[in-house]
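step 4 of 6: structure.
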Amino acid sequence: MALLPILRFPDPRLKKIAAPVAKVDDSIRKLVSDMAETMYEAPGIGLAATQVNVHKQVVVIDTSEDKNDLRVFINPRLENCTGSQTGEEGCLSVPGIYDKVERAEQVTVHYLDLEGKPRSLTTDGLLAVCIQHELDHLNGTVFVDHLSQLKQTRIKAKLAKQARVTA
Ligand code: K1U
Ligand code: ZN
């Protein structure tokens, strides 16, 4: 296993659109393993391959308290997004920034598992939010893109200042 470097907003590589995985093979399983290690170490509750500069449709999520319920979504597709919920989101690519985002309350996601088998999951609450946040990453969208231009400008200035201080 290996820890992978996480791209930081506003890195333009976070805007790339991820390609579908043609075959779920050992290279994809190794990527998933490395992404899971990176997510747990961060720590975070989700990670999209885009964030580690791999532009393939792969997502890992674990919203459990005990960090023992790893979920893997390959080539995920959302369907039947219903209702709405608004909650604070953070992002490992936007460290130290949290803000409210409106999302669907319930979603169904179709995806491939680690054996390449088609699966689907209908869920709500935090897991539904996290799925929507991670699928946004695969489409080149970061949660701050949902905020006002004024907030985005302030966030960019804050992150640039943080980067100068830590340089
Ligand atoms: O995509 C990411 O950068 C991961 C992100 C996922 C997420 C968080 C909140 C709402 C929607 C999606 C994070 O994991 S940020 C860190 C975080 O939320 C967290 C960290 C430690 C413990 C619990 C939560
Ligand atoms: Zn994120």
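step 5 of 6: annotate
 - The mean pLDDT is 97.
 - The first strand starts at residue 46 and ends at 48.
step 6 of 6: archive
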